[in-house]
Amino acid sequence: MIHFENVGLRYGMGPEVLRDLTFDIPKGSFQFLTGPSGAGKTTLMRLLFMSLKPTRGLIRMFGRDIAVIPGEELPLLRRRIGIVFQDFRLLDHMTTYENVALPLRVRGKDEASYRSDVIELLKWVGLGERINVLPPVLSGGEKQRVAIARALIDQPEVLLADEPTGNVDPPMARRLLNLFTELNRLGTAVVIATHDLTLMDRVDARRMILTGGRLDIHD
Ligand SMILES: Nc1ncnc2c1ncn2[C@@H]1O[C@H](COP(=O)(O)OP(=O)(O)OP(=O)(O)O)[C@@H](O)[C@H]1O
């Protein structure tokens, strides 16, 4: 579903941050992306979301070479991907409920068809009491859970989550991990960037380890 071949990336005239990355993300697979701080995890997530283009090599997303995809088609391809950014990127003028419902609204779905699903998911991530508030009054951990709910609500083909448990306590981290494994069971390919070893030890999943811009994969 996603294919990288000899991919390299540098920012501006700087050194290569990612080097010679060759790997596949198969349909329905589950993988952790890990490595020391500054190794390039967020950069790789941005390549996977097509918000950065590689400076060399080939990337195929859903069978298409991203170098030749017209810019106006990218938003459509990105809709097949759920993403949790490290900085959450919630819309501050919309309530928790509206933020989570947004991907469904963008698709033109009728609110009556999804309202109860959105509320159920918000309850599952512990935000049942925060449904009608605006993001600026939420804590960091609450914002993170809204961002996760928004990424999951439409059962994307791929889920990319950058440190999705970085702001929550261990029981909530386990609960969120259960949500990711359940989504994966339903067919979504999941990529979770994390430093959290105890989290990784809970799932028998592929580990993609970035060190100094190079990738090692342990199946
Ligand atoms: N916009 C940018 N311009 C220039 N250099 C950048 C930019 N973003 C990241 N870098 C550099 O690229 C390297 C990889 O950064 P990246 O954020 O991808 O690492 P990371 O593994 O996600 O780190 P962390 O675990 O601390 O979040 C770092 O050396 C960083 O300084």
TrEMBL record:
One of its GO terms (biological process) is cell division. It is a peripheral membrane protein. The keyword Coiled coil does not apply. Keywords: ATP-binding, Cell cycle, Cell division, Cell membrane, Membrane, Nucleotide-binding, Transport. It holds the Pfam family ABC_tran. One of its GO terms (cellular component) is plasma membrane. The keyword S-adenosyl-L-methionine does not apply. Residues 2-217 form the ABC transporter domain. It comes from the Bacteria. It is found in: Cell inner membrane; Cell membrane. One of its GO terms (molecular function) is ATP binding. InterPro entries: AAA+_ATPase (IPR003593), ABC_transporter-like_ATP-bd (IPR003439), ABC_transporter-like_CS (IPR017871), ABC_transpr_LolD-like (IPR015854), Cell_div_FtsE (IPR005286), MacB-like_ATP-bd (IPR017911), P-loop_NTPase (IPR027417). Belongs to the ABC transporter superfamily. Homodimer. Forms a membrane-associated complex with FtsX. Part of the ABC transporter FtsEX involved in cellular division. Important for assembly or stability of the septal ring. NCBIfam families: FtsE. This is Cell division ATP-binding protein FtsE. It comes from Hoeflea halophila. The lineage of its organism: Bacteria, Pseudomonadati, Pseudomonadota, Alphaproteobacteria, Hyphomicrobiales.
